[in-house]
Design goal:
Elements lengths: L1 H24 L5 H16 L3 H36 L5
Length: 90
Amino acid sequence: MSIDVQREAEELVRYYAELRRRLEAAGVRDVADLMHLYERLQRALGAVSRQEIAWTSEQTQRLVDALVRMDATLQTLRRLKAAMDEPASS
């Protein structure tokens, strides 16, 4: 039984070393640093409500729609100008 406990402890130590390696590769020093970042992210996300995000998304979509309409209008004007600039063929 003590051999199983020792083997499991060694596996856990290897996993922790691998976890640290992965975290460091992602720019995080260790698990404590990861937890600190998680807490900061939670606080930052708490500063913005879902309603604000929804409103911003709706505003952005309205702006995109308006820009698409403006682009279509400008393309039409471009084609009209090009047609007006062509010499009349009679």
